[in-house]
Amino acid sequence: MTSSPSISDTAYSHVPVSLGDRAYNILIGAGLLPNAGGLIKPVLRTPRVAIITDETVAALHLTTLQQSLNAAGIDNFPIILAPGESTKSLSVYSDLMSKLLDSRLQRDEAIIAFGGGVIGDIAGFAASTLRRGIDFIQIPTTLLSQVDSSVGGKTGINAAQGKNLIGAFYQPRLVLADVGLLESLPNREILAGYAEVVKYGLLGDFAFFEWLEANGKKVISGDIAARIAAVETSVRTKAHIVAEDEREGGVRALLNLGHTFGHALEAETGYGSRMIHGEAVALGMIMAAELSVQMDLLSRQDILRIRQHFAEVGLPCKVPSISGVDWQAETLLAHMRQDKKIVGGRLTLILMKEIGSAFATQAVSEADILSVITDELASA
Ligand code: NAD
Ligand code: MG
Q: Which of 147, 190, 259, 380 has the most CB atoms around its CB within 10 Å?
């Protein structure tokens, strides 16, 4: 850090995201929120911000943030949205832009995205388009947003035609990941975020996977030091990948491990509370691993090890039966064909050679994909 934050009692680590003139830092620690004002002030051009948040986060944590901003002399006002994925819509975006313009938020002022991935995505997109782009700061409040969505600059909202289809690559000026905020997060959301944490181990870091085998339960149950370590390693991996490939032309695709299968499961369950993203990604990673075994890439021993870890920490490893959902392998494959990552009519899938070594391939036949899905549904 070049500027010294006005705190003395909070230990935090920082991970730089190296993107030239759009480089920024991710600060990770416990108890950062009460010091947010001092940490944010050095990156502000003018000390005035709009805080975009949701009702749940506002009720729990908004006062602390505002007190800290006030103490640092940062003029601020909140815009509070409804919680949930349906907030990432054109109509909410339109209202939000009107409110930001009515409040006369200027180009040299900033937006703070204060919430989970839903808030980060819509607030980041609002920042990218308000007056052709104003600065924004991420204060992610879910494990998923701390390890994934707050880093890397993907912002956006959903369209009637599909998820995240309207958006922009737009990097924040600073990310503050306070693991203390996770104490109020329901266990189901913690586990969903943990699926993305394990993903970083599986795709490129065997040592991290081993560390999670030893410490994953602590991460989930709320051990602060374990949470800081897990978030730090995850964002370090993501920051590294994003710095290499900001717009997903190459290595960034590895972050989609488990996601093509996962999106099919989410599409079939309606992108809602019946199966949340991280649960679908966990199952998707199991399917990607099974496919890797079927193609003689990954060893049986490795997939058993992955399954055992998922079972131990409580991640799903079997497709659950859900009332109103009639799982069909063909239907799931049809959803996969809608995937954004189709190139020249072929699906790009992320497979594993071993734990900690994933790669992208278009050399998988639909028959092989179908057979893996069929097996997984049969064992459900
Ligand atoms: P979310 O933002 O909906 O948050 C989940 C729930 O937790 C919400 O009800 C929220 O109100 C509540 N919540 C948030 N923080 C809390 C806290 N500290 N205590 C108690 N409750 C809290 O969901 P999410 O899982 O954080 O994010 C999912 C979204 O992120 C999806 O829309 C997805 O598309 C997006 N995403 C984006 C990227 C990206 O790179 N931009 C990456 C992954 C996911
Ligand atoms: Mg994801």
A: 147
